[in-house]
Design a protein that fits this description.
ERG24_DHCR-like; sterol biosynthesis; mainly alpha; binds the ligand CC(C)=CCC[C@@H](C)[C@H]1CC=C2C3=C(CC[C@@]21C)[C@@]1(C)CC[C@H](O)C(C)(C)[C@@H]1CC3; binds NADPH dihydro-nicotinamide-adenine-dinucleotide phosphate; cholesterol biosynthesis
């Protein structure tokens, strides 16, 4: 068993109290959003229209459906992959291997769903099951995180995450103790980060679109845009699946309640909020405005993809011709920092692109309600906090070279603003 982290190590998320609050607040917020989205006034900051009783939340059918979904995605993960890649170097200097077949899993899932729908699968009934499904996903995330916590008790020291091992059980349960928990070659964090939650998100969106078509004769333009933009985002994540191996979630954070709940419940049930809102609150959208919103999403995507690909290419092979001409700062670790190209514009150009897309996903819902802008508000807070955590980690890793980078590239996310 590994010793706890030094008690002097600063704790993220407000320490054990903050973690305890988030363990309660995140599910509560998710249920609030699900209830408010279908209520007439749809007030983000108002009280929920009613408090659901146990019979509205608990459904063995919903749990069975969720477990079948997880089983299907796990089976697709285990299918032979054409490509297997190595992750970042671990504390013991070894590297884990990861299958790259997420996009293949998306295509097979789409085919299965298509076959199911043409055979009479009532996908349009899914919106009515969101509450019990979200409850089942929350229960699953709690049980799963508990098992992960117990598994970490017998993990060797080198397998533990830099955070998440404070010795405080609530904090460690939230943040996650083990960096890459696995059974044989099945990597739980890599699997959960990209597959069941992201694909469930677009499936829920599609179900909402079909339900709207059933209710109103055809889906609205706003619903098409939200579905299209978010499908692009999810397909892009799975197409560039190996890019996730350089994100903070995989290289730094443990796998605990934050990511288990985030991946399995928060993403599918809150990221589909705009489509949920549109089903119950149809919004008029003309072609000129729709074109402007499409352009905004395209600009956001261009920055997001350009920045992420540039960094991933550079980290994989700094002499790759696509990045070899970029200016860099050497660091004492032997790794270099890009200081021109996207990463010379601001220190987190990928966050900027992601935020622009978040705005484009909300605009089709009009400006009469704050609710569809929840994602933009939450995401801004998440990225500002994430950026601060990343800065701290980079300062620790790169010291003076990081100071030099901050001097050369003074803005964090938005040029000349922040
Ligand atoms: N939709 C959603 O809910 C969420 C989406 N995201 C998205 O996920 C993506 C990944 O985000 P995240 O993991 O936070 O962070 P990044 O992908 O930005 O990774 C940060 C790391 O990049 C490396 N880096 C930083 N600056 C430079 C530089 N100048 N040159 C080379 N390498 C550099 C450092 O690691 P090292 O030097 O060790 O390589 C740093 O720790 C982003 O696009 C973000 O928008 C994130 C959270 C939630
Ligand atoms: C406090 C709180 C709500 C924590 C949970 C946060 C998680 C929902 C997010 C943390 C990082 C994420 C990433 C993506 C989805 C959301 C979570 C899990 C991501 C998979 C979305 C698609 C992108 O292309 C991505 C692969 C870059 C991204 C990685 C980070």
């Amino acid at each position: 068993m590994a010793p706890p982290q030094s008690s002097r190590a600063s704790l993220d998320f407000g320490g054990p109290l903050g973690a305890a609050a988030l363990i309660l607040l995140l599910p509560a917020t998710m249920f609030h959003l699900l209830l408010v989205a279908r209520s007439g006034p749809a007030r983000l900051l108002g009280p929920p229209p009613y408090l659901p009783g146990p019979e509205a939340l608990w459904s063995p059918r919903a749990l069975l459906l969720l477990l079948t979904w997880l089983g299907l995605q796990a089976a697709l993960y285990l299918l032979p992959a054409r490509k297997v890649v190595e992750g970042q170097e671990l504390k013991n200097k070894s590297r884990l291997r990861y299958p790259v077949n997420g996009f293949q899993a998306l295509v097979v899932t789409a085919l299965l769903v298509g076959l199911g729908v043409s055979a009479g699968l009532p996908l349009g009934a899914l919106p009515e099951m969101l509450l019990p499904l979200a409850f089942a996903a929350t229960l699953t995330a709690f049980v799963f995180s508990l098992l992960l916590y117990l598994k970490a008790l017998v993990a060797p020291a080198y397998a533990l995450a830099p955070g998440g091992n404070s010795g405080n059980p609530i904090y460690d349960f939230f943040l996650g103790r083990e960096l890459n928990p696995r059974i044989c070659s099945f990597d739980f964090k890599y699997f959960c980060e990209l597959r069941p939650g992201l694909m469930a998100w677009v499936l829920i969106n599609l179900a909402l679109l079909l339900q709207e078509a059933e209710l109103r004769g055809s889906p609205s333009l706003a619903m098409w845009l939200v579905n299209g933009f978010q499908l692009l985002y999810v397909a892009d994540a799975l197409w560039h699946e190996e890019g996730v191996l350089t994100t903070m979630d995989i290289t730094h954070d443990g796998f605990g309640f934050m990511l288990a709940f985030g991946d399995l419940a928060w993403v599918p049930f809150t990221y589909s909020l705009q489509a949920q809102f549109l089903l119950y609150h149809p919004q008029p959208l003309g072609l000129p405005m729709a074109s402007v919103i499409c352009l905004l999403n395209a600009v956001g995507y261009y920055i997001f993809r350009g920045a992420n690909s540039q960094k991933n290419t550079f980290r994989k092979n700094p002499s790759d011709p696509r990045v070899a001409d970029l200016e860099t700062i050497p660091t004492a670790t032997g790794r270099q920092l890009l200081v021109s190209g996207w990463w010379g514009m601001v220190r987190h150009p990928n966050y900027l692109g992601d935020l622009i897309m978040a705005l484009a996903w909300s605009l089709p819902c009009g400006v009469s309600h704050l609710l569809p802008y929840f994602y933009l508000l939450y995401f801004t807070a998440l990225l500002v906090h994430r950026e601060a955590r990343d800065e701290q980690q980079c300062l620790q890793k790169y010291g003076l070279a990081w100071h030099e980078y901050c001097k050369r590239v003074p803005y964090r996310i938005v040029p000349y603003v922040y």
